[in-house]
Amino acid sequence: MSRELTKLTIAGARDALRKGDVTSVELTESCLSAIDAADALNAFVHKTPEIARERAAAADARLKAGDAPDMCGIPVGIKDLFCTKGVASQAASRILEGFAPEYESTVSQNLIDAGAVMLGKLNMDEFAMGSSNETSVYGNAVNPWRRGNDDTALTPGGSSGGSASAVAADLCLAATGTDTGGSIRQPAAFTGITGIKPTYGRCSRWGTIAFASSLDQAGPMTKDVRDAAIMLQAMCSHDPKDSTSAELAVPDFEAALTGDIRGKTIGIPKEYHMDGMPQEIEDLWTKGKEMLADAGAKIVDITLPHTKYALPAYYVIAPAEASSNLARYDGVRYGHRAKLAQGDGITEMYEKTRAEGFGAEVQRRVMIGTYVLSAGFYDAYYNRARKVRTLIKKDFEDVFAQGVDAILTPATPSAAFGLGEMKDADPVQMYLNDVFTVTVNLAGLPGIALPAGLDKQGLPLGLQLIGRPWEEGDLLNTAYALERAAGFVAKPAKWW
Ligand code: GLN
């Protein structure tokens, strides 16, 4: 019974809670047991059972009183990037060792206000930089899926790898993620779950540890599209504490899920056909196109001509912003400080602390970022990348102006790969994971990844839908139609 409860969707649990068929305390205890039995996945890195039990009891009281928002009593995991009051919030970095914030991020506070129950903090790549969860100070999270009978440990993707692993393995009903270049959508695709990155400005960034501020957005990682709609709704709000948070009412996303997409126009961008992409991904994409056409959508070929510059522009802009954001970790204000030698001054303290506190990938990004922002190279790299970004955004604006409602692409260029497989590869090899997702962040658009099939080794493959700005409801509805047509129900076989 306890295993079964953790398999519930948010919508299923919400209805059972309201009917009194289950209590939040029961749901929460089931999740806590599942988490304790899944240490092999290394998904939860700070467990918070006391907080969970307290919030579950409070949620049950609210449910009893008939004051129950949709997320009330729902046990969730929170990515380690969100500051959670009094609870370790480390961005999976050594430099934030021992940091327990005095405040709660707006997104996690919104979830608390809605009655959600935090089970703990989830593994991720250090400062959300990575695509495999291998840059984490806690060690990598593990994908619950495996290739056929082969027991090679696979990556759950990154940076929200712990969130993806936890949701796919039914350790929690849903989790928060963040997406700067694909970190919700790529891990969702690698683990057979759903993840949406909303329009930039939909979720407040306040209290979410910054990576690249003009790209970062929080979003839900869930078992299906309906749950994504429910949880996104609870996470978003206008927040005066984040100047880029949109002053817009949050629509009822779940109400948009009619499954009716007749007359919608879906664009297929020719630039997303990549050299060397596995045939299975091409086939999945074709299948997705056919399913949307069968549901009554009109399929059109489109062109997004600047796509090929997206990855290089991203890997200038994101490190530039990261180098500036990460300057605050100086050994004085937060977390780790290196042991100093006799005679060391403030410069040595900064240098030693940052050298010890940041892992290799973060150091690489800080160096790239500092370089592209330096006086001699600012115009050649940073300013050039910003101009490219404008062109990428315009590509999307042009197709939307031509009447395209959503764009269908693969979510990732491959299925989940083996942990350690990329260890000796050029870092650019890892960056290629984001080839289909970064454009969406650069343009500030909403994008959703959902599972649509299995490859021949039995691993999940995802499709991505990209929508018009601020029209997450419409995008979720298209995803809902695709989900119903794809009928993906596979689950990883339990080995952990
Ligand atoms: N994999 C990308 C990177 O390493 C995206 C990360 C993210 O979206 N946070 O930058």
Count of DSSP E strands? 11
The averaged pLDDT comes out at: 97
Counting DSSP H or I runs of 4 or more residues, the number of helices is 16
Helix fraction bin: 25-40%
Q: What's the end-to-end separation, in Å?
A: 18 Å
Radius of gyration: 21 Å
Q: How is the main sheet built?
A: 11 strands, mixed
H and E order: HHHEHEHEHEHEEHEHEHHHHEHHEEH
Shape: globular
Report low-confidence residues grouped into runs of 5 or more: none
Say which molecules are bound, naming each kind only once.
Answer: glutamine
Structural class: alpha/beta
Q: Give the strand line-up of the largest sheet.
A: 1-3-2-4-6-5-10-11-9-7-8
Strand fraction equals: 5-15%
Report what the structure shows:
By secondary structure, the chain is of the alpha/beta class. Helix content is 38%, strand content 12%. It has 16 helices and 11 strands. It has helices at 2-6, 10-19, 24-36, 49-64, 106-113, 161-168, 185-191, 225-235, 279-294, 310-325, 346-357, 360-373, 378-401, 427-431, 438-443, 472-486, and strands at residues 44-47, 75-79, 117-122, 174-179, 194-197, 217-222, 265-269, 298-302, 406-410, 447-454, 460-467. An 11-stranded mixed sheet has the order 1-3-2-4-6-5-10-11-9-7-8, with helices on both faces. Strand 10 and strand 11 form a beta hairpin. Helix 3 (24-36) packs antiparallel against helix 4. The chain is globular. The mean pLDDT is 97. The structure holds glutamine. Glutamine (GLN) binds next to loops.
